[in-house]
Specification:
The protein is α+β, with helices and mostly antiparallel strands. It is built from 24 helices and ten strands. Helices cover 69% and strands 8% of the residues. It is extended, with a radius of gyration of 41 Å.
Length: 750
């Protein structure tokens, strides 16, 4: 029996075992359908939620007699645009799932028709041992095929539903775009009677107006708030890092060993537990993290910011200044409420004109005080002029019956002014936080202990100013309801294909090329703040620095150029043409530039001198102040800065007095009378030289007779001193002491 079993087992076909394993794998793949079911359920839930959000919007947009203001239409457009993007993503995911299910169905069909997996009377004796397993396997294949078909049917039905939803959403978006376009075409048309002809006895329902004005905005705000939670989470994380950054620095500064060096910390806006400064940073940066935010989101964020600023200013500014701030806060609230109640009645329109006049007066008072805030002065004046212009436009538009546009101008003006104040405070808070970090690092030996404070302040002030301008412009465009149009116009201008000969490009390529080159130049310019940025002078002994800073600058420039070329979109074949033309230019007239550039690279690696070294080249002597890519700078003892091409430094005869050390063998000439006692003179010189601290103790001075005339003897003194920079001081002190000593000993100097 054992022998027979062995024989039959060796006669089992290998293909049968492979087919059985293949069928089992296909059945297992169908059984593991939880991922596809989860995808279908998630899409169904998401689709149901989006339909719920779009249902009231669809009802309003498809009602011709329903008037919808442009602000609400833009919010609706954001919702529909996001809905279409989600639908497209779901269709792509379902298409991938459908393709996988079809592959599974095809595989199961092929295996079901495979004769090797069927049972027949003509089967060999070896295959009959697998009859039970094959019967079970065929039943499982049949069940798996039905399950896979049901799942494929669910995916197909959901794809059909999504296709219909996408068509309906596209149609809804076209309707919204048409309404926005129609509103844009009539933006300056009269929508109400002239002010002097407006009805005087018109009554209105406050609650009804409030409800109708914010009904659409409320939908947009809730939807927007739910889908952008990840941006807010990132912002909150950044603000928490800012909070703990200040908190930890105050904690380090409070340690006894650091408190003695730092002294008393006197900051205006940041404290040891910086809750209020962190909230100010949070609400100020919110628009930057929500570039597609609706105007109601900006208005509510600004109101929260003003509330926090009110609490902060209550303890920071004088009562007179605080009263002005309260006027701004009250004016902001009155304008927001008035815009909600705005209609064609004469009294509400007169009230809005009164608010515009008050805004102009208060803005003038605030403008005079904003000059004291630490923000770029050139930013204050343009913002105030825009603020004044918008209020005047609001008055004129109100008088001539364009009340909705008047309301838009009014609210944009007041938000622009309050945003400027908050941005000024934002700059002060961040600047104080950086100054605290510098003070703490100076005591703890951190990276900020090596930086040049003035350069660092200038660098961060430029960055903060640019960020403030970006935030202000973003809020300005959103509140004027033109952000979508401006971004769309910029996108069309930047992405339009253009050609120059056989080279095709877009303005976005040129823009990114320019930005990358500018940023790389800015980084290489200010990277020195991490290495101390110590100014080279002759007033003290400057610490020598090697050329690694120059190498880093070179690496930044090369990386920037490579990234810029990549961003420009220039094809490789066109790039070779440009390089060929550049080679011709080098051959014709750029030899000196390339020579200096290559010489600069050689100087960085060969290191014949370093920053702070005292060198001599031709008729010039001085300290190396900077080693650049094309040229280097030398500071002479007369105070002039000499710019020397790197090619001259490499090819000329250069003397480095401080290459290995700062020692110098200096020469002093002394003339005495022919009758003087030379032994006494030598003893006096030795004594006075030994008393000076600048000499090298283990090197004896050399006293030599340089020349003899009829009435004098010239003595040459050769002595080693510790630093070449101390030579003038050493000679002055030595000659002064020798003069006094020779007078006492009655030695006559010639």
């Amino acid at each position: 029996m054992q022998m027979q079993t062995a024989d039959t087992s060796t006669n089992i076909p290998d293909t049968l075992l492979f087919k059985i394993q293949q069928a089992q794998a296909a059945i297992a793949a169908v059984d593991s359908k939880s991922q596809d079911i989860e995808l279908i359920n998630r899409i169904k839930m998401g689709l149901s939620t989006i339909k719920t959000h779009l249902s009231p919007i669809r009802a309003e947009v498809y009602t011709p007699e329903k008037a919808i203001d442009p602000q609400t239409l833009l919010s609706y457009k954001l919702i529909v645009k996001d809905a279409r993007r989600n639908a497209d993503n779901w269709v792509n995911a379902l298409a991938t799932s459908s393709k996988a299910l079809q592959n599974k169905a095809q595989q199961i069909l092929v295996l079901s028709r495979d004769s090797s997996l069927r049972i027949s009377k003509s089967d060999s004796s070896s295959k009959k041992f697998y009859n039970t397993q094959l019967s079970s396997l065929r039943l499982k294949l049949l069940a798996a095929g039905k399950s896979n078909n049901r799942q494929l049917d669910s995916v197909s039905r959901l794809l059909a539903t999504l296709s219909a939803f996408r068509s309906a959403t596209a149609e809804l978006q076209v309707r919204i775009d048409n309404r926005i376009r129609s509103a844009s075409q009539t933006v300056f048309h009269k929508e109400s009677a002239y002010l002097w002809a407006s009805p005087k006895d018109q009554s209105f329902n406050f609650l009804q107006l409030l409800k109708s004005s914010y009904e659409g905005q409320d939908k947009a705000f809730k939807y927007f708030f739910n889908i952008t939670w990840d941006n807010r989470l990132l912002l909150i994380i950044i603000v928490c890092i800012f909070f703990f950054w200040i908190y930890s620095n105050f904690k380090k500064a409070s340690k006894p060993e650091n408190r003695r060096n730092i002294g008393e910390l006197q900051f205006i806006h940041i404290k040891a537990f910086p809750v209020i400064p962190s909230l100010i940073i949070l609400f100020t940066l919110a628009p930057l993290f929500e570039p597609n935010a609706s105007s109601i989101y900006i208005q509510l964020t600004q109101l929260l910011l003003l509330t926090v600023l009110t609490y902060h200013f209550n303890k920071q500014i004088s009562s007179h200044q605080f009263n002005y701030w309260l006027l701004i806060l009250v004016l902001y609230i009155l304008i927001i409420v008035s815009i909600v109640l705005l209609h064609d009645g004469i009294w509400i329109r007169l009230w809005l004109i009164l608010l515009n006049a008050a805004a102009i007066y208060i803005g003038l008072q605030i403008y005079m005080k904003l000059k004291d805030l630490q923000i770029a002065g050139r930013l204050i004046r343009p913002v105030y002029l825009i603020y004044l212009f918008l209020n005047l436009c609001a008055v004129i538009l109100n008088i001539f019956g364009r009340i909705s546009l008047a309301g838009t101008c009014t609210i944009t003006a007041i938000i622009g002014l309050t945003q400027l104040i908050s941005l000024a405070l934002f700059v002060q808070i961040v600047s104080e936080a950086i100054w605290l970090q510098i003070k703490v690092s100076a005591c703890t030996g951190g990276i900020f202990s090596r930086i040049n404070v003035q350069n660092t302040k200038t660098f961060f002030k430029r960055i903060l100013t640019a960020l403030c301008i970006l935030l202000w412009l973003l809020d300005f465009l959103i509140n004027l309801n033109i952000s979508e149009n401006v971004f769309s116009l910029l996108h069309k201008i930047l992405e339009k294909p253009r050609s120059f000969g056989s080279i095709h490009f877009t303005l976005s390529n040129v823009f990114f090329f320019t930005i990358i080159i500018y940023l790389s130049n800015l980084i290489q310019k200010y990277i020195g703040i991490l290495f101390g940025g110590e100014k080279v002078t002759f007033s003290n002994e400057t610490r020598r620095k090697d050329s690694k800073l120059s190498l880093i600058r070179l690496a930044v420039i090369l990386a920037g150029v490579m990234l810029a070329i990549t961003a420009s979109g220039i094809p490789a074949d066109k790039l070779t043409v440009v390089l060929g033309a550049l080679g011709v230019g080098i051959g014709l007239g750029m030899q000196n530039i390339v020579n200096n550039f290559v010489s600069g690279i050689i100087l960085m690696f060969e290191k014949p001198f370093q920053i702070g070294d005292y060198i001599e080249l031709a008729d010039k002597k001085g300290k190396i102040r900077d080693i650049g890519i094309r040229s280097s700078k030398m500071l002479t003892q007369q105070g002039s800065e000499v710019i020397i091409p790197n090619g001259d430094l490499l090819s000329g005869r250069l003397v480095n007095w401080t290459l290995s050390n700062n020692y110098l063998k200096t020469e002093v000439l002394i003339k005495v009378h022919i009758d003087s006692d030379l032994s006494l003179v030598n003893n006096i010189i030795n004594q006075e030289v030994s008393r000076l601290p600048e000499i090298i103790k283990n090197q004896e001075p050399e006293i030599l007779i340089n020349s003899i005339s009829t009435d004098s003897i010239e003595i040459k003194l050769l002595v080693w001193i510790t630093s070449i920079y101390k030579e003038p001081t050493f000679k002055s002190q030595l000659l002064k002491q020798l003069l006094l000593k020779f007078r006492i000993e009655e030695i006559k100097m010639m």
